């Protein structure tokens, strides 16, 4: 019998809730072949505190275990709620092992628990400033551009720009960047989500989508011409639409996904509707990657009260994308 595809689950910042919600998900997902990436002692401790089994065998690519562990040791003891820069390198090693396994074919997808950008930057272990999972995975895989998409409550919201100060957003909205983003979004909606003819709702940058140029000219000079050019290539793009009225049931029914111009234009709406059950997906990578819609929740770490719902959803979506990819192949 052929082995089931293995999903790598990186357990994230060791001082946060990642290890315990990963242990909770491992206890509740026997229907997928799940590989936890992290320190065995840390994960066993958090699992036992939850009353979950930690009897995970070491990962063997040739064995079809429901749950296995790829042990990667901490640099130093991790105390719940207390960040330690000494473990920043450990967090990146988890990501590197998952990426390498996906590219080598050992893993069919990677799912990531939350990490803490601040402590990684404090440690100075990343090559340059560490912006987050999305940007790191793009750099690690040599991908020129990726797109962040969050899914939940029937919505899919992608971002034209991600972790930028608001003052830098207008200059980052360029015809070239917007074109690449929309092409990636259209491609992955087709090939990863199985949507034959995606319809994408595109938000304007300014209030009221610029109010015919009275509240900004980015829509007239950049966004509208870019959408027109891409429509000529066959993309179905609706917009630019005023963001304050885009997220209503009637408008959303017209599209399969929304492209917001910046982080806090699109994500607060989706997270309000689905927080704790939303999923972050990185589009454009040569691998499948999903993640949670929340952070490390240091104040909850070690208490056993953190909700694993978003991580459960991320695992389910990754498994669904893998299965769809397998059927397409």
TrEMBL record:
Q: Which Pfam families match?
A: PdxA
The UniProt entry, under Gene3D superfamilies, shows: Isopropylmalate Dehydrogenase
Entry's cofactor comment: Binds 1 divalent metal cation per subunit. Can use ions such as Zn(2+), Mg(2+) or Co(2+).
Q: Which cofactor does it need?
A: Zn(2+); Mg(2+); Co(2+)
Catalysed reactions, semicolon-separated: 4-(phosphooxy)-L-threonine + NAD(+) = 3-amino-2-oxopropyl phosphate + CO2 + NADH
Q: What is its main location?
A: cytoplasm
In short, the EC number is 1.1.1.262
Q: Where in the cell is it found?
A: Cytoplasm
Q: Which GO terms describe its molecular function?
A: 4-hydroxythreonine-4-phosphate dehydrogenase activity
Residues binding a divalent metal cation, per UniProt: 163, 208, 263
UniProt entry keywords in alphabetical sequence: Cobalt, Cytoplasm, Magnesium, Metal-binding, NAD, NADP, Oxidoreductase, Pyridoxine biosynthesis, Zinc
Pathway annotation: Cofactor biosynthesis; pyridoxine 5'-phosphate biosynthesis; pyridoxine 5'-phosphate from D-erythrose 4-phosphate: step 4/5
Q: Which residues bind substrate?
A: 133-134, 271, 280, 289
Share any extra remarks: The active site is located at the dimer interface.
What HAMAP family does UniProt report for this protein, alphabetically? Answer: PdxA
State what this protein does: Catalyzes the NAD(P)-dependent oxidation of 4-(phosphooxy)-L-threonine (HTP) into 2-amino-3-oxo-4-(phosphooxy)butyric acid which spontaneously decarboxylates to form 3-amino-2-oxopropyl phosphate (AHAP).
| UniProt similarity note | Belongs to the PdxA family.
Subunit organization: Homodimer.
Q: What is this protein called?
A: 4-hydroxythreonine-4-phosphate dehydrogenase
Question: What organism is the protein native to?
Answer: Chitiniphilus purpureus
UniProt lineage = Bacteria, Pseudomonadati, Pseudomonadota, Betaproteobacteria, Neisseriales
């Amino acid at each position: 019998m052929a082995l089931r595809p293995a999903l790598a689950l990186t357990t994230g910042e060791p001082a946060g809730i990642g290890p315990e919600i990963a242990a909770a998900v491992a206890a509740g997902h026997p229907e997928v072949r799940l590989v936890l990436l992290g320190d065995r002692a840390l994960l066993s401790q958090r699992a036992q505190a939850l009353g979950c089994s930690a009897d995970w065998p070491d990962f063997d690519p040739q064995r079809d275990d429901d749950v296995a562990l790829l042990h990667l040791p901490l640099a130093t003891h991790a105390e719940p709620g207390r960040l330690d820069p000494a473990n920043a390198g450990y967090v990146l090693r988890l990501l590197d092992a998952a990426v390498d396994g996906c590219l080598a074919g050992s893993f069919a997808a990677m799912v990531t628990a939350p990490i803490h950008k601040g402590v990684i930057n404090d440690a100075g272990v990343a090559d340059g400033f560490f912006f987050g999972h999305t940007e790191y995975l793009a750099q690690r895989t040599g991908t020129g551009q990726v797109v962040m998409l969050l899914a939940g409550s029937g919505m899919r919201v992608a971002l034209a720009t991600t972790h930028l100060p608001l003052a830098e957003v207008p200059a980052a909205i360029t015809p070239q960047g917007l074109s690449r983003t929309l092409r990636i979004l259209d491609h992955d909606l087709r090939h990863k989500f199985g949507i034959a003819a995606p319809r994408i709702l595109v938000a304007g940058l300014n209030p009221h989508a610029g109010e015919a140029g009275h509240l900004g000219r980015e829509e007239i000079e950049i966004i509208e011409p870019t959408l027109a050019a891409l429509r000529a290539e066959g993309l179905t793009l609706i917009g630019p639409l005023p963001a304050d009225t885009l997220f209503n049931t009637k408008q959303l029914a017209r599209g399969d996904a929304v492209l917001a111009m910046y982080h806090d234009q699109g994500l607060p709406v989706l997270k309000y509707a689905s927080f704790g059950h939303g999923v972050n997906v990185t589009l454009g990578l040569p691998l499948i990657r999903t993640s949670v819609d929340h952070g490390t929740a240091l104040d909850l770490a070690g208490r056993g009260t953190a909700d694993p719902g978003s991580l459960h959803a991320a695992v389910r979506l990754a498994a669904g994308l893998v299965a769809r990819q397998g059927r397409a192949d």
